[in-house]
Amino acid sequence: MSIAKLQSRADSLEHLDPMDRAKAVAREFHVSSETIETGTGHFVKQLSEGLLADGTTLLQVPSYVTNLPNGTEKGVCLAIDLGGTNLRVCSVELHGDSTHTLTQSKAAVPAALMTAKTYRDLFGFIARHTEAFMEEHMPGTLDSWRRIVKDGQVTDELRRQRLHPLGFTFSFTFDQHAIDKGRLMYWTKAFNIDDAVGRDPCAMLQEALDELHLPLLVTALVNDTVGTLAARAYASPGRSETLLGAIFGTGTNGAYVEKMTNIKKLHSQPGFADPGQAAFMVLNTEWGGFDKELSVLPTTKYDETLDRASVNPRDQHYEKRISGLYLGELLRRVILAEMQSPTPCFSLSAQSHSRLHIPYSIDSSFLSVIIGDQSPTLERAREEISKVLSVRQVSVSDAAALQVIAEAIGRRAARLSAIAIAGVVVQSGRLGSTTLMMGASQRMVLTRPSFLVRLWSDCRMALGAFVSCVHHSFHPERVKSDSVSQEASSDLSYNSDKGKEYVSQEMDIIDIGVDGSLFEFFPGFEGHIRTALREIPAIGPLGEERIQMGTAPDGSGVGAALIAWASRKP
Ligand code: BGC
């Protein structure tokens, strides 16, 4: 924008009353229907690129999970879940009827450990919590193993017999080479520990567990999105097969079911055998990195300063506009900028110890509380503003101005989230033939003839084989199974006269498992996603109705336990 234009914009803002000014700031966070449509096209393009080669913008990391649970899994498994904010140590009892019992201990990860000098500090903390969990819930198992270690009697055979399989949910960006092997590519969210980058998360954890002589063997490395997908498939089988596991929490990401025939970058790997048309693998998209080049994402001056000051500048732009870690930080930056303006949209003045002066000190729950107050006097919102920001005398109009801006930041996050959901749905082909806007002049037509019939029977085949088909190493050929469910086949009717490819009520639904504080608690988050989905021509109101979004109870922990359980060696 030219200096003259900026000047005239500043002049016009000066003459606005405070609420109009707040609305003007809010408009900077507006996302048009056109942006969402173009964004979806760009997302599908980047998803497709990630199927062909490593190192693309959307990483499309193979998870080595080649089947999903069907709800009949039974047994007890342990999981450790390291998220962006909390650590959870869990014991999950799978009842075999889509339900589970969870025993867990949760701790906030201290900020100092997120940027510790060495990975040993962070993983030592995880191991100590795991030890405390075992002392409380499995004291006999722990003691007897420690006696064996003390007597110097550990043998490979005893390790095989005595060590408990453990699923490790690691909610960061890693490349995966087998179900229990990976390599941390880079940290995201508020984490930054140099010597961890390039190392295997399973090995770092195993080293710390062994140091404390805990009878545990890390048998599955799972991104939280993959865990959420597995947990959702376990908890809601039958109605439809789950397509996507998505997280809208401290960070954001999604993992979805992709056909092996499409994952061309795996075809040249040593040991790859043609898995047949039926095979699929769950891919971790790492969609937080979408549009690294910023060709479609809207950018405000607040996004720019946030990015520059972050631990990962010029990266994770999509995540920085969507996820919980950043929404409070964006609002903090808006408030500070307004306070320095000659005509601010509120008359707040912060004390020197106010959190407004501390980066990342405002949680997205602050925005939720302000937006959630629909009373005429905004009592609750004013109290919260006063408490969290340490400001005195918050007027109704101050709170109303903040509400308008917080709402706009949240709505932008939700509308942008729709791009990824729509992109995965389009890529899956479950909606049939679709035309997408790719940019000003390009158009792309995506067609998946007869896809629904194939996908449905493929997945039903694979579901039955979940238990036997997640392995320590990659055995795609094992996915082949003769056990096509007769019951499943009879659910289908195929009307070739009309050229349609299904029809079953169950199949019509596209199921998505979602986890994360924004989706669960941010007022209107799902509603805004749905509005945006309807605006995308490739989805439209009919497609939007077919998309079912639901939480997966205890998603990432239960998912990791399920995958570890299935990866046990016979
Ligand atoms: C990480 C992902 C993770 C997501 C949600 C992102 O910052 O890169 O691996 O799935 O957060 O927790």
TrEMBL record:
Pathway in which this enzyme or protein is active: Carbohydrate degradation; glycolysis; D-glyceraldehyde 3-phosphate and glycerone phosphate from D-glucose: step 1/4
GO cellular component: cytosol; mitochondrion
Enzyme class: transferase
Family matches, as Pfam families: Hexokinase_1, Hexokinase_2
Domain Hexokinase N-terminal: 23-234
Keywords of this entry: ATP-binding, Glycolysis, Kinase, Nucleotide-binding, Transferase
Record GO terms (molecular function): ATP binding; D-glucose binding; fructokinase activity; glucokinase activity
Family, similarity comment: Belongs to the hexokinase family.
Protein name in the entry: Phosphotransferase
